[in-house]
Specification:
By secondary structure, the protein is mainly alpha-helical. The protein has five helices and two strands; from the N terminus they run H-H-H-E-E-H-H. It has a single domain, classed as Fumarate Reductase Cytochrome B subunit (Up-down Bundle).
């Protein structure tokens, strides 16, 4: 692995998940704001499920790539507590990104309502349970809110590192990593020169 950035596929999958999660959140808010029982509300719900399943399908190779690829070095190095906190946040984000689609699928499995992925009919549990399905949905919604706030914090912290602390934390994940890393390395070197 190149020590200055994540692998190409790790970065691609990261930004793909970002797009899928953003669209999924927009769709569920659009569903909630639509007239109850309307066709458009049903369409937003269907689209939300499609993107949710897509997140799971993208997260599986992403986890494999993340395990194999390692992490790039950050310049200047983070304090130990920041590095530990960053790893903890990343772990929680991965857990939520896997758990939420699985909870959504479980909700549909135990629901008596028909469901599909890209028009392909999907099965139900042998004995559907509407009460259990609603309990799963409540957990799904609670964790969905947690993911939204945590992902927002994750993005805000990355921007703080990039624009205020001026380290290379974000550069390792940017598609234009060469230019971004070079800029940070140059600014770090010029600061060192000024100190001398």
């Amino acid at each position: 692995m190149n020590t200055s950035h994540y692998s190409t596929w790790t970065r691609r999958l990261h930004w793909l998940v970002f797009i899928l999660v953003t669209v999924t959140l927009i769709l569920i808010y659009a569903h909630n704001w639509s007239p109850k029982g309307s066709v458009i509300q049903a369409q937003f719900k269907w689209a939300h499920m499609q993107f949710g399943i897509a997140i799971l399908l993208v997260m599986l190779p992403r986890v494999i790539m993340r395990r194999r690829g390692g992490r790039p070095h950050i310049f200047p190095p983070l304090p130990t507590w920041q590095d530990w906190l960053a790893q903890l946040m990343q772990f929680v984000l991965y857990v939520l990104l896997l758990a939420l689609p699985l909870l959504g699928i479980a909700n549909r499995l135990w629901s008596p309502e028909a469901w599909n992925f890209l028009g392909i009919a999907l099965p139900h549990a042998p004995v559907p349970d509407k009460v259990f399905s609603k309990q799963l949905l409540r957990i799904h919604e609670t964790l969905g809110n947690a993911l939204m706030y945590l992902a927002g914090a994750h993005a805000a912290i990355a921007l703080v590192h990039h624009f205020i602390l001026r380290d290379s934390t974000l550069c390792g994940m940017l598609p234009i990593w060469r230019r971004a890393t070079a800029t940070h390395m140059d600014s770090g070197m010029s600061m060192d020169a000024q100190d001398e």
